[in-house]
Write a structure and sequence with these properties.
By secondary structure, the chain is of the alpha/beta class. It has three domains: 1-62, 434 Repressor (Amino-terminal Domain); 74-177 and 311-339, Rossmann fold; 180-309, Response regulator (Rossmann fold, 3-Layer(aba) Sandwich). It contains 13 helices and twelve strands. The longest helix is centred in the first third of the chain and has 17 residues, at 89-105. The chain is elongated, with a radius of gyration of 25 Å.
């Protein structure tokens, strides 16, 4: 049972709420201030029932740890940074929400930093961020999670980082998904609908996901005994615009595809846009499918068949792995998350051709 605390929040009758202090949380939970500090610093060897009492007292008092005071008291900044360079704002927002959820649970701050992977000096830019804000760790998204010069420099600086969808051995902790198997499964579904001329608009060459998704596309064809046609593979950028451009090239072929796989939902939605501009009915005349299951896939019409990559969960898991390692709760590792086929209105039986 919690002990009553003196009424600090009344503001001595002036109607203003005063900020709860660590002493108030300790008194309400019936523990010492040191124990409260250990709970919020996620230190090991705190009993579960004690942790729950402290967290409940903090919730009732609306207590938030003072990050500046915590930084002065220890060697941590209680801050992590999320670095990204990705044309899909839908994907990045899902990642941000997941990372932020993990940070809030651990009473950590989060900074966001776009990093232009294609520009010279981006490694130095990240080093400047590290020197200025002293984050306890970084969460990296593709393609930064596979940027070998950046990863090498982070190791030289002894900066902890977690990777999302990193290639093998490019990150020791983080979250990933078997994208190759996922695409092969979706290909099997589309082939079962009678499609044989299936095209693919790839992702950017710098992204690890490009290779995995292309490999899954080829696996699906090979498993069905379909000879791959190089003319049906078009370079893309993981963007809506590259979906439009790729669809134009594919649909202008003398023998156009009956189905197109966009390397992500943005690309696939670009294909649907171009099909509509040409008066092609999706899926009656052209089936389209993507990857990620971003909100866009459910907002476009016809709704997009896609592969659900739980991006929000991946952001949360990667941040959680990083925070556990920072706090000494574990060595962390790569967590493989499950995928799920989302079959919607943009895929259907292959059209009959004369």
């Amino acid at each position: 049972m919690m002990r009553p605390t003196r009424d600090r929040q009344a503001g001595k009758g002036d109607g203003r709420r005063m900020r709860a202090r660590i002493e108030d949380v300790a008194a309400a939970a019936g523990v010492s201030m040191k124990t409260v500090s250990r709970v919020f610093n996620r230190e090991p060897n705190v009993r579960e029932d004690t942790r729950l009492k402290v967290e409940e007292a903090a919730r009732q008092l609306r207590y938030r740890p003072n990050s500046s005071a915590r930084s002065l008291a220890g060697r941590r900044s209680y801050l992590i940074s999320l670095l990204y360079d990705n044309p899909s704002s839908n994907y990045i927002m899902e990642i941000i929400e997941g990372v932020l959820a993990a940070c809030e649970q651990a009473h950590y701050g989060l900074t966001l930093r776009p990093v232009d992977f294609s520009r010279r000096g981006h490694v130095e830019s990240v080093e400047g961020l590290v020197n200025q804000y002293r984050p306890d760790g970084l969460v990296l998204t593709p393609p930064l999670t596979d940027d070998l010069p950046l990863l090498r420099r982070l190791r030289e600086l002894d900066v902890r980082y977690a990777g999302i969808s990193a290639k093998r051995n490019n990150a020791r902790i983080g979250a990933t998904l078997d994208e190759r198997a996922a695409v092969a499964d979706m290909m099997a579904h589309v082939i079962a609908l009678g499609h044989r001329r299936i095209a693919h608009i790839t992702g950017h060459r710098s992204h690890g996901a490009r290779a995995w998704r292309l490999a899954g596309y080829l696996d699906g064809l090979n498993q069905a005994g379909i000879e791959p046609d190089p003319a049906l593979v078009i370079e893309g950028e993981f963007s809506f615009e590259s979906g439009i451009a790729g669809a134009r090239r594919l649909l202008d072929l003398d023998d156009p595809p009956t189905a197109i796989f966009g390397a992500n939902d943005d690309t696939a939605c670009g294909v649907i846009y171009e099909a509509a501009a040409r008066g092609l009915a999706v899926p009656d005349q052209l089936s389209v499918f993507g990857f990620d299951d971003t909100p866009m896939s459910r907002q476009v019409w016809p709704s997009l068949s896609t592969i659900r990559q739980p991006s929000r969960d991946m952001g949360r898991i990667a941040a959680r792995q990083l925070l556990d390692e920072i706090s000494g709760h574990g060595a962390g590792g790569i967590v493989r998350v499950p995928y799920q086929l989302q079959i919607r209105h943009s895929t259907g039986p292959a059209p009959q051709r004369r």
